[in-house]
């Protein structure tokens, strides 16, 4: 049985805010990937992925975020992350991904910063 994950999205001032709650791992990556593919197919191009509700993220989870970033960049879009958990921030620092993704402390800050 797959661990539960919740993925919600909303439009806020021209940005698609994707809120993920639960564990981002090998079991939930397919749901996240499919969600992002569907939003891009809908023509959306500016994303803020809110990871404040994520309790765990593994290498597969990092991989799906990198894949999402590549897909968004391939259509000249933007993708930003919201991360407040110190352990998750440390993971992005240790892997060097903090230099790949724009990371913010709030959805408001991510939307307002170019």
From TrEMBL:
GO MF term set: anti-sigma factor antagonist activity
Cross-referenced SUPFAM superfamilies: SpoIIaa-like
Residue intervals of the STAS domain: 5-114
Pfam families (alphabetical): STAS (PF01740)
InterPro entries: Anti-sigma_ant, STAS_dom, STAS_dom_sf
Protein family: Belongs to the anti-sigma-factor antagonist family.
Name of the protein in question: Anti-sigma factor antagonist
